[in-house]
Structures are given as structure tokens and as C-alpha cells.
Amino acid sequence: MSKALLWWLLGFWVSGSVVTHVVYIKRIGWPETARLAPVQVMKGPRWQLLLPGALFARNDLVLAPSAVPSLARAAAYLRAHPGDELTITGAYAGSEAVATIVPDLGRARAGAVAAYLQKLGALPRQLHLRSRRDDALRFADDSTNALIFSLDPGALPLAAAPVTVQQLANAQRYSTLWRPMELYFPLGSIHYLHTPHTERFVTAAAAYLRAHPKALLLTTAHTDSLGLMAWNLDMALARATEVKARLLTLGVRAAQIQMVQRGAASPIAPNRTPAGRLANRRVSLALRP
């Protein structure tokens, strides 16, 4: 092979590398794929709750399944803070208004979120719906974020808001198996506080699981932020294991119980206050058919 050919091949390789670096890595002059920013639902000094950007398809009011985990945390927060209010504003573009038969697409989108939060135990009086036309609304892959949230802490005066872990436990209400139940724990304890409503949920869930062998119960264990992360994860695992042991005594198969220990990673209330730490020491039970 001649030297001229070798130099030509080397130059071709170098030129190809430069083009790859400039176009694909630096993306100079190359259009980037459009992305939708996540939507902030709530935020504290050391925590925030976000929804993924793609929440609704164009002209549609059906909420994307990817929003469900974050909304479940938002509902848990509202249950633990019955004095707080959440305003949900649904946005829509003018082009969507003429392409759908829904009278107010923005309010319908906000209503879809509110309906899900109420299904998980948020109080209707805590939720306020708004609608806003936004002709600058962004779309990516024919989806849009289209939601704005505003949390007003302590907006509703309460004569007897929960201030002890026992009161938090007593505030839990069993209405349906498909509404998650929060089990609360005293500081440093792996034994949850039993109430008539928590026991109704546990026994009803066990009966459902025995009758439906393919159904699952997700037990997600949380702690406050006190102490080391490793200790919190160990405590979360011990609490989830204790709940699992209770279900096993009721005839549930171990394979039907999925345990997740989150430790202090997913608070539903600020850990800077004693009340917030009380609310965060919990195990969430969610039935999956």
C-alpha cells in the first residue's frame, strides 16, 4: 500500500472523527429532539415532587400513566396535611380547542388529575380547578405537559389537625381496596399502629389476594431523615418485613407481596418539622390486580 493512500485514509479517518464530534456530540447546527420540561407539583426546602413532561396527548384529556407514581405521592401528602390546598390549572392550545368536542379542555385535564387524587384520598375541599388557554403551549411527539400546580400550605383552618403519630394513623380511612393505605410507626419502632380502618384494609386485602393468586400487594416502606441513610434503609426493610409477616399469618403467599424500602428518599412532608417526620414514618400498601 502506497504512502499516499495511507495518508489519504488517515485524513479521511480524522475528518470523519471531527464531523462526528461536531455534529453528534456538540450538536452544532444539528436540531435537537424537542423535550418537554417536567411539571413541579410541590416543593419544600429539601424536596420537590415532579411529573414527567409528556402528560397529555394532543387534543386529549386522558392523563399519561407515567404521572401515576408522583400523583400517588401528592395524594399521600394531602392526606397527611388536610389543611393544605392544591390549585390545578389545566392548559390547552387554541388549536386544540377547535379539534375537540370537550367544552373546556383545560378544566377537563385539571379534573382528570383531581379525580385521581380524590381516588387516593385527597379531600375535594383541598383541590381547586382552573383552566388557561396558552397558544404557546409546547408539544413533543404530539404530547404536552399542560398542567400548572400551586400548593397553599395551611390554607384551610383546622381545629384538630393531626399532631401525633396516633392521630395520623386514626386519620386513615378504608373505603375501597384500590385506595392505598398508609400504616404509621412510632419513632424507632417496626410495629405499625393498628386502627379499625387499617385492620379492615389489611384483612380485606388478604382475602382478595387469597382469592386472586396473580394479584400483588406492593408494600413501600419509608422513614424520616433522622440518622444515617443505611440505618434508615434497614429500618424501612424491617418495617416492610413486619407488615409482610402479618399478611403471611392471614394466608397470603409470600410471592404476592412485593417489598420496597425507600428510606428517607420519598418524603410526603418536609423533614425539617416534627410533624413532617411523623408523616414520613410509614408503609404504603397498594393492591395490584
Automatic annotation (TrEMBL):
Key words of the record: Membrane
InterPro entries: Bact_OuterMem_StrucFunc, OmpA-like, OmpA-like_sf
Residues covered by the OmpA-like domain: 172-289
PROSITE patterns given in the database record: OMPA_2
GO cellular component, one term: membrane
Top-level taxon: Bacteria
A Pfam family: OmpA
Protein name (database record): OmpA-like domain-containing protein
Source organism of this protein record: Hymenobacter crusticola
Lineage start: Bacteria, Pseudomonadati, Bacteroidota, Cytophagia, Cytophagales
